[in-house]
Amino acid sequence: MGQERERILDLLVSGKITAEEAGRLLDALESRSSQPVTAATSPEVRSTETPKYIYVKVLSAKGDNVNVKVPLGLVRAGLKLTSFIPQPAMEQINKSMGDHGMSVDLLNFKAEDLEELIEALREMEVNVDAVNGDNVRVYCA
Amino acid sequence: MRVPPYAVAVRIVEQERTKFRIWFPLFLLWPLLLVFLLLTLIATLIVDIARLIAGRRRTYTRLVVECLGVVGETRGTEVFIEDKERTVAVTVR
Q: Is residue B3 less than 8 Å (CB to CB) from chain A?
């Protein structure tokens, strides 16, 4: 798999394929490698897998493309750190977030909720098509 | 907990030719990180014991361990930025 991955990255950096195509190929490679040998290849089976990465893909009409892949473990570990924020600071964060329209109470954030949240991300897909042709896609896989 | 990233690869390609390529071996920093980590853990343990005696919850040692966990979880991060002239690829391995 490592060699195939390297090959895709080489194709990307040499300009033979676009970032979008590379992303699709890497996704396909990952979904293929994360499947157990005995598992069926139906979409229903694939959709039950826990997502491992969060992808952010920006395809600009002008040809400027950004492709970011972040391990969900990093999100998980980062959110765990919120439990170390002192209570007064957390209250201020909550207040500030509330003022900006995000009424999320970080004080009530528990490890179980975190797992549930990450599990729920499997279903999440944000796809924004701008009038000028730009496309932003956020999803987990 | 995952082991910390062992390398960061940066590649810049201009007009289908690799202009700049660097593979930074982070594992060379691991011994330094280990020494730093040990010293930090000793300090946090002392603080935590003092806080425990004072009747407060001990958290600093866990904080250090969790921070190390965050560093470890950066493995697998990939960033590609492409425009008409060049492509920049950063990979944490």
A: no
pLDDT at B30 over 80: yes
Per-residue pLDDT reduced to its tens digit, A47-67: 567 788 999 999 988 888 999
Q: Closest approach of chain B CAs to the CA of A133, in angstroms? A: 15
- What is the number of residues in chain B? 93
Give the sign of the dihedral formed by CA A102, CA A104, CA A106, CA A109: negative
What are the Cα distances from residue B46, in Å, to B37, B41, B51, B54, B68? Answer: 14, 8, 9, 12, 19
- What is the C-alpha to C-alpha distance for residues B43 and A70, in angstroms, rounded to an integer? 32
Query: What is the distance in angstroms between the Cα of A99 and the nearest Cα belonging to chain B?
Result: 29
Q: Is A84 on the interface with B (CB under 8 A)?
A: yes
- Prediction pTM value: 0.68
